[in-house]
Amino acid sequence: MPKVSIIVPIYNVKEYMSAAVTSVINQSEKDIEIILVDDGSTDGSGRLCDQFAESDPRIQVIHKKNGGLSSARNAGVISAHADYVLFLDGDDYIHPRTVERLLEAISIAPADIVQFQYQEVEETVNLPDLAQIEIIGQSHTAQEAFSRLYEYGGVYASGCTKLIRKQLLIEIPFENIRHEDEMWCTRVFQRDLTITYIPDILYGYIMRQGSIIHSQFRPSMLDILEVRKQRIEALNKLGLEGLESQEIGKLFFSLLTLYRAAEYAHDDMSKAKIIHCFLEYKHLIMHKASIQGKLKLFLLVARIRNTFPFYLYCLVGKVQRWRKPK
Description:
Number of domains: 2
Radius of gyration: 21 Å
Strand content: 15-25%
Low-confidence stretches: 319-326
Shape: globular
CATH architecture of the largest domain: Alpha-Beta Complex
Oligomer: single chain
């Protein structure tokens, strides 16, 4: 049985995937399983997956109809043989000693999840050398897990910055939504799990203009609202009032920014859904949202009118665009 299964979803990344797959093949720890999930690629990525498999017996290729990132990850998990799973996006890469370091962390501080760091880069560069291993902490309860999540932000919300026990992924698979990582963390962190934290930068996250975060407005962006709603409910049940207030504030900010984006895209249906969500959570926003800076003004306006803060936020955005020098 391999020590770790590394799952690499592949979808139309032929130009970039060689660096990703090579970073896995060249791991210092050789006892690994590599699962390339071709999610219905149309650019020849699938054929390249097969070529890699011909050159390395550790590589397994799954060809499937396009179903999105979550579908590809879940398919890989089902086929994985190791007790622990690591995810790598097809256009990113990992440190040569990633698996070695994660196994070392598990041996020192056994856990359901090992959380590590990533580095944003514009191209494939060498990640920092690894010093002597350091365990910077562990969480054993849902309260501790969520507290660390909010302390460190996005890096702790990513599905690609974790070594995860396979059984956990079987019990709680990724949902087929746009913000699948945030939703998965919301669901998983409600359990009393053991998470080990290490400071190592083991993942190279390549920023590309074609990535999801750079795309134009789409109705699927509203998925974040459901994530925030479930997160608010979870934090409330756990009695984490401070974090709940932060998340309610994030919900209000998401509502404003999404409405502005939908306005520019002339998407009236999405605007109506956003207003509906605001009215559903208006009481919580009014009384519990943790908000700073200019958002306090929009919150004050929201106390008076139901929809006016959204129009005001759009107006401010238009003024800012008009003032921005060309």
